[in-house]
Structure formats: structure tokens, C-alpha cells
Design a protein that fits this description.
Radius of gyration: 23 Å
Largest sheet: none
InterPro entries: Arc_rbn_hlx_hlx, Ribbon_hlx_hlx
Helix content: 55-70%
Organism: Vescimonas fastidiosa
Order of helices and strands: HHHHH
Strand content: under 5%
Number of strands: 0
Protein name: Arc family DNA-binding protein
Structural class: mainly alpha
GO biological process, one term: regulation of DNA-templated transcription
Distance between the termini: 88 Å
Shape: elongated
Number of helices: 5
Length: 126
């Protein structure tokens, strides 16, 4: 019998703690899932478990690679758009979304400052 990190010990633990399911899918789908999971900072197993949980009505969870207490849950359509844009930009999805939010926050500050300046003359005329 091996030590606590031996194959046998790990297998005994996994057999006690986890159920295993074989999933069959069309050729090429596995690569798509691996790419998607990597872009969101998840393992394939983590992604599949999260997707199943969400489909069963469990509260959405952040991907395993997401910083705790941060992040956002995107709608499927927004996530697809972010993935496509991140790929075009050569970035991971989390990096792209973070940069996009920062850029939009800066734009919002500029727009707010412009609105404040536009309102100031009106208020002084009354």
C-alpha cells in the first residue's frame, strides 16, 4: 500500500467522495468545451458541474479560477459576445471583461463631467 499521495490512495479517496459519469458527445465538442472552460478560468470538470448545477436551478457560481468576491455572471449572450471579442483581441475572457469595464467606467466619468458642465449654465440663468 502506498503513501497518501499514491495512486491507490487517491483512487480510494475519489471512489468514496465522487460519482463518475461518462459523457459522450460529437467529435470536436470536447475541444470546444476545453477552450471555453480555459477562457473562463475553469477546468472542464468544473465547467460541466457548474453548467449542470445552473441548469438544475442551483444558484450560479463563479468559475473556479475567478477571484472570490469579485467578478460578474454574464448572460449566455453577453458571454458569447465577450468570448468572441476577447479572441479577436488575443485576451482571455476575464482580462477582456476587466479591461472593458475599466474603459467604460472612464467613459462614464467623462460623460458625467460633460453633463455637469452643460447643466451649470442653465442653473445660473434661473
Amino acid at each position: 500500500m502506498g503513501g497518501k499521495n499514491s495512486y491507490e490512495s487517491i483512487k480510494r479517496y475519489e471512489d468514496k467522495a465522487y460519482d463518475k459519469v461518462l459523457v459522450r458527445m460529437p467529435k470536436g465538442r470536447k475541444d470546444e468545451i476545453q477552450t471555453f472552460a480555459a477562457q473562463t478560468g475553469e477546468s472542464v470538470n468544473g465547467f460541466i458541474n457548474r453548467a449542470i448545477g445552473e441548469a438544475m436551478g442551483e444558484s450560479p457560481r463563479q468559475p473556479a479560477g475567478a477571484p472570490q468576491g469579485e467578478g460578474a455572471i454574464l448572460t449566455p449572450a453577453a458571454l458569447k459576445t465577450a468570448q468572441e471579442a476577447a479572441q479577436r483581441a488575443g485576451e482571455t475572457v476575464p482580462a477582456f471583461v476587466s479591461r472593458s469595464v475599466e474603459t467604460q467606467a472612464q467613459r462614464d466619468k467623462v460623460m458625467q463631467a460633460m453633463r455637469t458642465k452643460e447643466k451649470a449654465p442653465e442653473e445660473s440663468e434661473t
